[in-house]
Amino acid sequence: QVNLVESGGGSVQAGGSLLLSCAASGDIFSISRMGWYRQAPGNQRELVATAWKNGRREYAPSVEGRFTISRDIAAHTVSLQMNNLKPEDTAVYYCSAVRVVGSTGWANHWGQGTQVTVSS
Q1: DSSP SS3 for 25
Q2: What is each CA distance from 80 to 11, 58, 88, 102, in whole angstroms?
Q3: Above 90 in pLDDT, residue 1?
Q4: What angle do CA 17, 94, 103 make, to 5 degrees?
Q5: Measuring CA to CA, which residue among 58, 11, 55, 19 is closest to residue 35?
């Protein structure tokens, strides 16, 4: 069992910044990768950024160069620094974690989501 709690959402004007944070608890030692997804009304949930234990980072093209994902493995946290925010970034942002189960299985977990609203 992995529990994820997000914080840091809010409302900002275009061009502003927000820092999202996520803290994991439970079976944290089995977590493989952590990241952030977002979902706007009427849209599918999409990947924003993912951080692997080996330092690999993946970003959605729409946020590349503006967002930075950071992971503290020892502290079981992941954060997302969002700069130069745009109205199209408005969405509910979800922390995610993939947990290794046994030797070949895996399970994904989600936080409750935090609202990010960017006004023009």
Answers
A1: strand
A2: 16, 12, 17, 29
A3: no
A4: 130
A5: 58
C-beta of residue 51 within 8 angstroms of C-beta of residue 33: yes
Buried b (16+ CB within 10 A) or exposed e, 1-39: ebebebebbeebeeeeebebbbbbeebbeebebbbbbbe
With 0-12 / 13-18 / 19 or more C-beta atoms within 10 angstroms meaning exposed / middle / buried, residue 42 is exposed
Rounded Cα–Cα distance for residues 87 and 42 (Å): 16
Q: Answer yes or no: are the C-beta atoms of 18 and 36 closer than 8 Å.
A: no
Question: What is the pLDDT confidence band of residue 25, given thresholds at 50, 70 and 90?
Answer: very high
**Which residue has 């954060």 as its token pair?**
79
CA distance 66 to 61: 10
For residue 5 the two structure tokens come to 């709690």
